[in-house]
Amino acid sequence: MILYANNKQLDLSVPQVMGIINVTPDSFSDGGKFNSVDSALEQATKMIAAGATILDIGGESTRPGAPDVELEEELNRVIPVIEAIRAHSQIWISVDTSKAEVMRQAVQAGADIINDVRALQEPGALEAAAEANVPVCLMHMQGQPRTMQSAPHYEDILSDISQFLEERVRACESVGIAKEQLILDPGFGFGKTLAHNYHLLAHLEQFHQLGLPLLAGMSRKSMIFKVLDKKPADCTVASVTCATIAAMKGAQILRVHDVDETIEAMKMVQLVQANH
Questions:
Q1: How far is CA 259 from CA 72, 119, 213, 266, in A?
Q2: Angle at CA of residue 209, ends 206 and 213, nearest 5°
Q3: Can you tell me the distance from the alpha carbon of 138 to that of 121, in angstroms, rounded to the nearest whole number?
Q4: Sign of CA dihedral 245, 247, 253, 254
Q5: pLDDT 10s digits, 153-208
Q6: What contacts 202, CB < 8 A, 6 or more positions away?
């Protein structure tokens, strides 16, 4: 499997590491725009040096209970950071957004992937993604960030998520987005209990039946820090362990905060897979 965008290609036959750069006020202590761009660029430079092949830039927090962010605010957070990174590097840039206008402007600014936790269900998002003509990651979420953890319930979590993702793939194809441009994310932590999350991870390989690359993002999520009773930032080892399990089960893209450590783990995974 190979992804194509903007005269670049990404080989998904080996696990690729996507570094997370959140440009939200609760991620960067200084709310000043220049400081945000500066610190984001510094973080990006470190992640690129460590070996990340994709950077995921997000301006709207989607943690449980997070408030919505206005369009202008999200654009002001995200676009200058994408422009700054693009001016310094040809790394793959993913924009983590659900808003059609953010998708449009982000791709114009140099983004290569649209990563949408709402799977292009917001107004105009399908059309914006079709126009952008870049790969799209479709994620499963039950409910909305404000409410998704109140009482998640599934008849059969694996088939429920598969059905949802298949439906969204069809919706994409109906507006002219090629299936080869799609990536699927089962949405760890998005409308899922602890038990749901670990059941998903234990059976992650089942999603290969959908025939598309898988992205797994568990880094520092509550499924990890609640079990360990630690702060999210103190969960590096467990986060890398979850990423490693996902990669061993064939996930092609690992979305992580701890790039250095995950890159090392992926080298081990590749050695094992090469000898399988």
A1: 30, 25, 20, 10
A2: 90
A3: 10
A4: positive
A5: 888 999 999 999 999 999 999 999 999 999 999 999 999 999 999 999 999 999 99
A6: none
Question: Residue 9 corresponds to which amino acid?
Answer: Q
Question: What span, in angstroms and rounded, lies between the C-alpha atoms of 80 and 104?
Answer: 14
Strands (E), the chain: 2-5, 8-11, 16-22, 54-58, 92-96, 113-116, 136-139, 182-185, 215-216, 253-256
pLDDT in tens, 50-81: 999 999 999 987 777 777 889 999 999 999 99
In sequence order, which residues have a C-beta less than 8 Å from that of residue 85 and are 6 or more positions away? Answer: 40, 41, 44, 55, 57, 91, 93, 110
Retrieve residue 66's tokens: 């997070």
Please tell me the distance from the alpha carbon of residue 193 to that of residue 83, in angstroms, as a whole number: 37
pTM flag (> 0.90): yes
Residue whose tokens read 């750069």: 21
251-270 as b/e: b if 16+ CB within 10 A = bbbbbbbbbbbbbebbeebe
Strand partners, 3: 10
On whether the CB atoms of residues 66 and 146 are closer than 8 A, the answer is yes
Q: Are 61 and 26 in contact (CB under 8 A)?
A: yes
Q: How confident is the model at residue 36 (pLDDT cuts 50, 70, 90)?
A: confident
Q: Which residues are identified as catalytic?
A: 221, 255
Q: In angstroms, rounded to a whole number, what is the distance separating the alpha carbons of residues 252 and 235?
A: 22
The residue type found at 179 is: K
